[in-house]
Amino acid sequence: MTSSQPPLLQVSGLRKSFADNQVLKDMTLDIDKGEAVTIIGTSGCGKSLFFKCLQDLVTPDAGTIQINGQNLHDLSTQERTEYSQRCSVLFQYGGLFDSLKVWENICFLQTNLDDIPNDQAREIAVEKLAIVGLAPDVCDLYPSDLSGGMQKRVGFARAIANDPEILFLDEPTAGLDPIMSNEICRFISESVSAIGATTISISSDLNTVERISDRVAMIHDGRFVWDGPSDQLYASGNEYVHQFVNKLADGPIAIGV
C-alpha cells in the first residue's frame, strides 16, 4: 500500500563539484518519515559529502533537498535553525568535548540554546545514559575517563537527548569490537523506535547495516546505483552491490592501486 504522506526528505538531481572534480553527479533519493536508511559505498564515492548536504553543512551546486515539501535552501534563517534543531548527529569518533563532564556533553545544546537549568540537564542526561546502559555516576566523569565503547555510548546518548526527528549516524560502530558493535546496534534500534526518529546512516560494517536499516542505498561514482530493502542486500541482483558485499576484486567497481 502506498503511503498518502509525502516523503520527509526528497533529494533530486543533487550535484556538487570541487574545481574539476565532480563528486556528486546526479543524486536522487526519497526517505519517508520513520524510515531507517543506510548509505553504503566505497571510499571516495561521495557518501560523506551527500551526508553533509543533507545536514545543510555543504551547499550543492545544483538539485534540491526538500524537507516536508519545502526546499531546504529556500528556508529562512529561522526555519533553517529550526531544522537543525530537529536533527542530531552521532559522530564517527564521538565528538565529545574533553573539557566537559559527561552530563554537560549530553545536554550541551539544551544548556546553551534552550538555557535549561543544570539540575534539569542532569536529569535528561541520566535518562539518556540509562537507554545506552550506563549508570548515573557516569554523569560526572570526563571523556578521558571512558573507554572507546563508553565514549560511543555517551555520543549516542547526546544524539538522542533532544528526541530528534532526524538522526544522522556517521559510522556508528567504527572502531568497536563485535560485542560492543552489537550493543550499539541494539541501542540504536530500540531508542530510534521509541522516539520515532528517521535515521540516515553511513556505514562500512555490513553487520551494522543489516541490523539498523530498513533500506540500503548504494553510491558509486557520485550516483545511486541501487536502493532496496536491507534484507535483500545479499540478493540484490545488482552487480555493484554484489561486488561490494562479497568483497570481490573483480567487478564494475575499479580497485585503486
Q: What is this structure, in a nutshell?
A:
This protein is of the alpha/beta class and 257 residues long. The chain has helices at 47-54, 77-85, 102-106, 108-114, 118-131, 148-159, 178-195, 206-212, 239-245, and strands at residues 9-18, 21-31, 36-40, 62-67, 70-71, 87-90, 166-170, 198-202, 215-220, 223-229. It has 2 domains: 1-86 and 167-257, P-loop containing nucleotide triphosphate hydrolases (Rossmann fold); 97-163, no CATH class.
Overview of this protein structure:
With 257 residues, the protein is α/β, with parallel strands linked by helices. The chain folds into 2 domains: 1-86 and 167-257, P-loop containing nucleotide triphosphate hydrolases (Rossmann fold), CATH 3.40.50.300; 97-163, no CATH class. It is built from 9 helices and 10 strands. It has helices at 47-54, 77-85, 102-106, 108-114, 118-131, 148-159, 178-195, 206-212, 239-245; strands at residues 9-18, 21-31, 36-40, 62-67, 70-71, 87-90, 166-170, 198-202, 215-220, 223-229. Strands 6-7-8-3-9-10 form a 6-stranded mixed sheet. A hairpin with a 2-residue loop joins β9 and β10. α5 crosses α6 (148-159). The N and C termini lie far apart (47 Å). The model has no long low-confidence stretch (mean pLDDT 91).
CATH architecture assignment of the largest domain: 3-Layer(aba) Sandwich
Number of strand elements: 10
What is the CATH level 1 assignment of the largest domain? Answer: Alpha Beta
Strand content: 15-25%
What characteristic shape results from the CA principal axes? globular
Compute the gyration radius: what is it? Answer: 19 Å
- The overall pLDDT average reads 91
Order of helices and strands: EEEHEEHEHHHHEHEHEEH
Describe the largest sheet. 6 strands, mixed
Give the helix/strand class: alpha/beta
Distance between the ends: 47 Å
The number of helical segments is 9
Give the CATH topology of the largest domain: Rossmann fold
The parts where pLDDT drops under 50 for at least 5 residues are none
What's the number of domains? 2
Fraction of residues in helix: 25-40%
> Major sheet: order of its strands?
6-7-8-3-9-10
